[in-house]
Design goal:
Number of strands: 22
Distance between the termini: 62 Å
Largest sheet: 6 strands, antiparallel, barrel
Shape: elongated
CATH topology of the largest domain: conserved putative lor/sdh protein from methanococcus maripaludis s2 fold
Helix content: 25-40%
Strand content: 35-45%
Number of domains: 3
Order of helices and strands: HHEEEEEEHHEEEEHEEEEEEEEEEEE
Structural class: alpha+beta
Number of helices: 5
CATH class of the largest domain: Mainly Beta
Strand order of the largest sheet: 3-10-13-12-11-14
Oligomer: single chain
Radius of gyration: 41 Å
């Protein structure tokens, strides 16, 4: 009996020293100061998400107009170019010689026309004085007419020679990026044979397939959000065109959205998502800054009775700094914003601010 009583007394002292049923580390820890915010309901737009692909706003393939050896092609694929920038130069010695010949022909024609004009004026005066015959006057007028036509033809030949010479210097027809280069120094250019391809990437177009149910709610000029997943980038775009002909198999309509791309980060052919606003609906929202993640799970710490409790959530769409939650939490719950790294389930907390 004495042994049992002593054991009972020892157990009683041990429990007293340990604080009863409460673990010592929770009873003696200093509460963490935290900031909380209430989970609230709000009216949001039921967005329709569609996928698409980025496309250049414009694309052009530039070909040679003349035949001749390429003597310069000092550019590379991926290079940004501006309208009027010379990219390919063809051998121009023959073209320059043709221009010089045309200039000489024009000079000679001008002189001939000037001489014929003086003769015609003098002959008119003599005819008025009855010093020359009608036949002589007619011959002078005919020579002046022919010389005027010859000068016009010579001027046209010079213009043509200068045009041909200009064709030897192939320039960028617009601002953009070189996406294909076909020309190499030493190659023989020929009419119609491509030299390079340029794409205009600022702005860009995003082509998406709108479901039949959504197409009626979209109009040209509507503003939409566009996400480029590979760049973790979200930008605003404008609906530029709607193709009012459904794809037979998918029953979808094509929409083209224009987005800015001043820094050139977005390339053509990239995967994109477009978010079209839909009808308004009620949603339960919590601050994105309250989320914690462990593997594939995401949750929040809720404050209840002075302690933090971790709740795993099923989440929906993001709305700015808020995110929709479908289950795991209730309206009015106090969630901890930017949870401290040493926060854990059951830890004592002290709320020092809201919002």
């Amino acid at each position: 009996m004495h042994t049992i009583a002593a054991a009972a007394a020892s157990l009683s002292l041990l429990l007293t020293a340990c604080g009863g049923d409460e673990p010592q580390d929770l009873r003696e820890e200093t509460p963490l100061r935290v900031r909380v915010q209430s989970v609230q309901r709000a009216t949001v737009s039921a967005e329709a998400t569609v996928v698409g692909t980025t496309e250049p706003f414009a694309r052009t393939t530039v070909a040679a107009r003349l035949m001749g050896p390429i003597v310069a092609a000092d550019f590379d694929e991926g290079q940004r170019v501006v309208k009027g920038q010379m990219l390919v130069q063809l051998e121009s010695r023959v073209l320059k010689a043709q221009r010089a010949q045309a200039q000489a022909g024009l000079s000679e024609a001008r002189s001939a026309r000037a001489m014929a004009e003086k003769t015609a004026v003098r002959t008119r005066n003599l005819f008025a004085e009855e010093a020359v015959s009608q036949q002589t006057l007619d011959r002078a007028e005919t020579d002046f007419t022919r010389s005027t036509a010859a000068e016009k033809a010579a001027r046209q030949m010079l213009r043509q020679a200068e045009t041909q010479l200009n064709y030897g210097a192939v320039k960028a027809p617009m601002d953009g990026y070189v996406v294909r280069k076909f020309a190499q120094v030493g190659d023989m250019a020929a009419p119609g044979v491509p030299l390079f391809m340029i794409e205009q990437l600022d702005p860009l177009k995003v082509e998406v397939a709108l479901p039949e149910s959504e197409s009626a709610r979209v109009s040209v000029g509507d503003l939409v959000q566009v996400e480029i997943e590979a760049l973790a980038l979200r930008v605003e775009g404008r609906v530029d065109a709607l193709v009012q002909a459904a794809e037979t198999r998918s029953r979808s309509f094509r929409a083209k959205i224009v987005i800015a791309n001043a820094d050139g980060r977005i390339g053509s052919g990239m995967f994109a998502r477009a978010f079209f606003p839909g009808p308004m609906r009620d949603a339960l929202l919590l601050p994105s800054a309250s989320l914690v993640q462990k593997g594939q799970l995401r949750g929040v710490y809720v404050v209840a009775n002075g302690r933090a409790h971790l709740r795993w959530l099923r989440l929906g769409k993001v709305y700015g700094q808020k995110i929709e939650v479908f289950s795991g939490i209730d309206e009015g719950d106090q969630v901890i914003i930017s949870p401290p790294i040493d926060l854990r389930e059951g830890r004592q907390v002290e709320v020092h601010s809201n919002g």
